[in-house]
Amino acid sequence: MKQPNWQRNLYFLWFGNFMTGMGFSMTMPFLSLFVATLGNFTRPQLNLLSGFAFAITFLAKAIVSPYWGKLADQYGRKLMCLRASLGMAFTITACGFVPNVWVLIVLRAIQGCFSGYINNANAIVAASVPIDHSGKALGTLATGNVVGTLLGPLAGGVLAQTFGYRSSFYVTGVMMVIVFVTTLVFVHEDFTPVDKQAMVPTKQIFRELKYPMLIWGLFITTLVIQAANMSITPIISLLIKDLLHHGGQVAMVSGVISSLPGIVTLVESPLLGALSDRIGPEKVLGVGLVAAIICFIPMSMVHNVWQLGVWRTLLGVSDAAMLPAIQTLMTHYVPKSAFGRIFSYNQSFQAMGSVSGPMLGSVVANAVSYQGVFMMTAILETLNLMFLVPAMWSLFKAKRIEQN
């Protein structure tokens, strides 16, 4: 029996998401160490340049994603996946040859400009999957990026330790070439190019959305989830060091604690995605947000790493509930002709969360305490829930009316 086209796409786009997630994260553990080899910098200069080199990729992604989304709706999402994978292959490989930090920063900015594989992969699957399987399919697809992001730092650290920092860039470049080839050969998209004059303007799409406040609420929720997850990034090892009372294997424990939510999300996302197909993604999203708030509050009062580990494990369950639910809601309430633009806007908000989260975390940690970062994220999640509830309530009432 011939396999449905959407299932084959799901398998190969999962692989593409996995390789892209790994490629993005492989150089993260040693980026500041690599920057240190590119010149003689003071400690403040090194911190500033490393932070800038990290953030510039996400900032560029946030700015250009809507433009690529428009082209995706005009020429096809597969073409944008090919553009993203090939562009990243060149820019990441070139990072391995940089003579100074300024060239590295420029290349990482260009890398951000060429990004967009994951959101276009989501759009391809969302446009082709039967609506009653969308939650499980998008939940499964999300695990590809999660697994890649989890394994990337480990693989990058081993390569850097064995062959030097630059080797990770070369290997990542080869990986993105493989993604380009597999996407070109095995991913099929039924798409008819749209003439530029026939394209519905983005402003009109937002005006014609059935539930515009819901879509904007989902954008903001994506930003808050990413900011909450990234807020602890700059200070996680320092917090672990304090909780271990300046003894023990800080680096190893930090790695384990950091990866716990991702590991749980990997396991739970397909299951909770399937649940959203049965009971509705809006219910799963609402419960996920409340669960995240419940997890972050006690994190602000932990006294040892075991307590922190337990609450971060539970946080992974809430992430697994929220991320596929957001994608599924967009699939339900956005016209297919606008998937490229809407999913790209969502990626822009996610990228803004990647930039703002670590910045907020660093500021709060300096002003209050490391644990205060978790209370800050709990407040952010609460404000987000308050913003999203009216839109969810209007959706709930409309569905009740339709059923009656």
TrEMBL record:
Location within or outside the cell: Cell membrane
Record-linked InterPro entries: MFS (IPR011701), MFS_dom (IPR020846), MFS_trans_sf (IPR036259), Tet-R_TetA/multi-R_MdtG-like (IPR001958)
PROSITE patterns on file: MFS (PS50850)
SUPFAM superfamilies hit by this protein: MFS general substrate transporter
Residue ranges crossing the lipid bilayer per the database entry: 12-36, 48-68, 80-105, 169-187, 213-240, 252-272, 284-306, 373-396
Keywords: Cell membrane, Membrane, Transmembrane, Transmembrane helix, Transport
Segments forming domain Major facilitator superfamily (MFS) profile: 9-396
Coarse class of the protein's main subcellular location: membrane
A Pfam family this chain is assigned to: MFS_1
Annotated protein name in UniProt: Drug H(+) antiporter
Organism: Secundilactobacillus similis DSM 23365 = JCM 2765
